[in-house]
Amino acid sequence: MKATMLRQTWVFIAICAPGGVVGQNTLAPVQVTAPAYTSHHGGYLISGDFRTDPHLPSVVFPSQALVTDDILSVQPTYLADDDYLVVQECASVDCSRASIVRVWNPSGAATASQNSENRILIQHENKYWIWLKHFPEPLACADCQSHYYTSFEPFSPPMVLMPSGELAAFNKDAILEARAENPVPVTSQSHEGSTFVVTYEDGTTVRIRRMHADH
């Protein structure tokens, strides 16, 4: 079923300092007119109604706000080496502070994933967004048990990901250098039925859906 609906949401506008370093991320209200790509299954209205914004084409956001008990399905079908896929949500009223919902590295979900690493049960209505960060391959340390970063600071500014733990400490300088780089931009987006499919500049491909109880 396809319908055109006018909705209000929030998107990020990146303010770049000289040299392309992201200095601040702020929010601005925009009117979004988007086709609602939906289907019904198992008592859920399944929607692929997600978008990027021309001001910051690296960020994917739902055209309609996620609410309590929604299920956000994020499935990386291909994650390029050294890429980290991130779901964040606002952690302050003005959204200048964000919290991590989930992170994936090339081995799979790197943070707590409850019953499914690709499904997130939304606990409360909020602003959520999805983006991709590239870190150079870390130098291995003797006591590190993974070749990828698996723990992260839970709070940060929007679109900032800070690895933590022993591997991060061993690669501190490289992490700080990578932090100044912008997220990986989206190069293509499409709908396959009720699934939103996004491909990033380095080939990473992600399938995204929202499942809402159809009462």
Keywords:
215 residues; mainly beta; seven-stranded antiparallel β-sheet; 2 helices; 16 strands
Question: What is this entry, summarized?
Answer:
The chain is mostly beta strands. The protein is built from two helices and 16 strands.
Explain what the structure shows.
Mean pLDDT is 83; it is low at 1-24 and 26-35. Strands 3, 4, 7, 11, 14, 15 and 16 form a seven-stranded antiparallel beta sheet that branches. Strands 8, 9, 10, 12 and 13 form a five-stranded antiparallel beta sheet that branches. A hairpin with a 2-residue loop joins strand 5 and strand 6. Helices cover 6% and strands 49% of the residues. The longest helix has 8 residues, at 172-179. The chain is mainly beta and 215 residues long.
Task: Walk me through the topology.
Elements: E1 4-16, E2 22-35, E3 38-41, E4 44-47, E5 50-53, E6 56-62, E7 71-78, E8 83-90, E9 98-105, E10 108-109, E11 119-121, E12 128-134, E13 155-156, H1 166-170, H2 172-179, E14 186-192, E15 195-200, E16 205-213
Antiparallel strand pairs: 1-2, 3-4, 4-16, 5-6, 7-11, 7-16, 8-9, 8-12, 9-10, 9-13, 14-15, 15-16
| Uncertain regions spanning at least 5 consecutive residues | 1-24, 26-35
| H-E order | EEEEEEEEEEEEEHHEEE
Shape: globular
Helix content: under 10%
Structure annotation, total helices: 2
Mean pLDDT: 83
The number of distinct β-strands equals 16
- Main β-sheet, in a few words? 7 strands, antiparallel
